[in-house]
Amino acid sequence: MSERPADAGSGPAVAAGMPASPLVPGLYLVGTPIGNLEDITLRALRVLQSATHILAEDTRHTRRLLDRHGIVTPMISCHKFNERAREEEILRRIRTGEALALVTDAGMPGISDPGARAAAAVRAAGLFVTVIPGPCALSAAVALCGQTESRGFLFEGFLDHKTAARRRRLQELAAFPAPIVFYESTHRILKLLDEVEAELGPERRLFIARELTKKFEETVTGTPAELRAHYQTRSLKGEFVVILLPRQPPRAPPGSPIL
Question: What's the DSSP call for residue 24?
Fold first, then answer.
């Protein structure tokens, strides 16, 4: 079973450089900052320090976080191109008593990032797997948007790179009654605005968050045309969280009776 042992999360956070109590052998999915390095929990720091190894999407990127907190736990690369190949090694290490912390470059593992495959493999093997919650661009943007209080939202992650598949998926989502969240890259954000306008109409509104938790954090809401005009004079640097707002019912023409 992969149920959490009663003592797996007990005990105070451990300051960097101080002895840490051993962790239960298993896989620990650790949330890390999405921009501001202060957004790290005490529990996450304790686990990163106490783990036998840290499975990191990019060891160079994670090294900056570890150095900031004086953590010297050895790292093993685990990214989308080798996660499948790492499965047997992860299982072997856990079976021999290791506690493995898995982190991505930013945010929560498994949410449009590596980690889901490893978590599924460990759970299927009947070994211990747990999560150390932390920052997530998805939840941060949804909170800032303020449009999900009644119907929740749908998370789509990244759309397909191929234009035909992207447009087809937008058509399928056109009438969805709740906000739809996408991740999008710097290189395709303007393309997405064009596609939304073409497939869903020029009046469809979107909320876009960029550089969340960083110095130049920005959020903006508008139609595709309004957003294109906005970005003509602003940087497209950073990753984008795009929330497609539900379509609005057609407005009655002036003088129409109220039913």
Answer: P
Helix (H) / strand (E) element for 89: namely helix 83-95
Q: What is the pLDDT of residues 195-233, one digit of tens each?
A: 999 999 999 999 999 999 999 999 999 999 999 999 998
Q: pTM for this one?
A: 0.85
CA-atom Rg of the chain in angstroms: 21
List the domain boundaries for the chain: 26-132, 137-244
Residues making up the chain, counted from first to last = 259
Name the CATH topology of 26-132.
Answer: Cobalt-precorrin-4 Transmethylase; domain 1 (3.40.1010)
Fold of 137-244: 3.30.950
Q: Are 224 and 206 in contact (CB under 8 A)?
A: yes
d(CA 34, CA 31): 9
**Cβ atoms 25, 129 nearer than 8 A:** no
Q: CB-based burial of residue 79 (10 Å sphere; 0-12 exposed, 13-18 middle, 19+ buried)?
A: middle
pLDDT tens for each residue of 146-155: 987 777 999 9
Look up residue 131 and give its two tokens.
Answer: 């999560």
Location of structure tokens 């070994």: 127
Asked if 169 contacts 201 with a C-beta cutoff of 8 angstroms, the reply is no
Q: What DSSP string runs through 117-167?
A: HHHHHHHHTT--EEEE----HHHHHHHHH---TTT--EEEEEPPSSHHHHH
